[in-house]
Amino acid sequence: MIGAIIGDIVGSRFDFDNHRSKDFELFTDECFVTDDSIMTLAIAKAIMEAEKAAMKARKAGMEGEKGLKPPLNPVDPIDDYSRLAGRMAVKYMQEIGRKYPNCGYGRRFATWVFSDDPQPYNSFGNGAAMRISPVGFAARTEFEACKLARAVTEVTHNHEEGIKGAEAVAVVIYMVRHGFTKGEIREKITHKYYPLDFTLDGIRDTYRFNETCQETVPQAIQAFLESASFEDAIRNAISLGGDSDTLAAITGSIAEAYYGVPEELKQKAFSYLDDELRAIFDEWVGFIDRTY
After folding, report:
1. Residue 258: which of 182, 160, 199 has the closest Cα?
2. How far is CA 177 from CA 46, 78, 120, 233, in A?
3. Domain of 192, in residue numbers
């Protein structure tokens, strides 16, 4: 998840002032945390709370405790768990999101965050993919990655292209974490999600700002596939222009899973997080270490 946060922070100053080169300073005083990081942390919180609730209910069911019904059934436990995660996603995206009203939400998402009756709004915006990395890190199987991605995405972005974008990123992260090669990842994404029939050099001059999954997720994945290190992946993403913070957040989330993140970059990124956001991140690290 720190990879997504770093990509977001580095890309924040380039969103409306694109930099089509890999030569730039990663962190400056102009950088800041945007909705990409905040919503990524909200999804992480949702997954952690869903896991806690599921474990508590399972234990209660085994011990016969009254008043707690296990949310997982023997027919499709992943489906039940995914629905629970979806409910938690609504809770924590609203609860955490309302504390940061000026972090760059799109108009429709901002309305959703502050709504008393939040409903999905048929979006295929790239916000679906920029926040999904915790799913890729938490999923125990590719099937679970797909189910969880859909569940926490369709609460806002219920257009199939929005769900596809989130699922593609979660699946790539899952594959990276389970030893698949870049070639195998390229084959999977091309076959199931998007044609990766381009190079960064081939599109850099013509690629423009775009807030859809269809025109952000493939480019972010390609930025990772053409990279030689975590930092190189971030630089690849920024060099394309476009929706720089989101593009780099998606690329960074994948690159973290593949390369890891240099400690000095982690520490620099932490300096941009307030105490509450850092606390969620620290809880996530402990959760992943204990659970996986």
Report:
1. 182
2. 21, 20, 30, 17
3. 2-24+33-278
Q: How far apart are CA 17 and CA 91, in angstroms?
A: 34
Burial of 180 (0-12, 13-18, 19+ CB in 10 A): middle
**Radius of gyration of the chain measured on its C-alpha atoms:** 18
Q: What is the rounded distance in angstroms from the CA atom of residue 238 to the CA atom of residue 68?
A: 48
Task: For residue 85, tell me if it sits in a domain.
Answer: yes
Q: What is the separation of C-alpha 67 from the centre of its chain, rounded to a whole number of angstroms?
A: 35
Kindly report, residue by residue over 18-50, the tens digit of the pLDDT. Answer: 999 999 999 999 999 999 999 999 999 999 999
> What distance in Å separates the CA atoms of residue 6 and residue 247, rounded to the nearest whole number?
11
CATH number for the domain harbouring residue 212: 1.10.4080.10
The verdict on residue 285 lying in a domain is: no
pTM of the complete model:
0.93
State pLDDT tens for residues 242-256.
999 999 999 999 999
Cα separations in angstroms, 50 against 15, 78, 278: 33, 12, 20
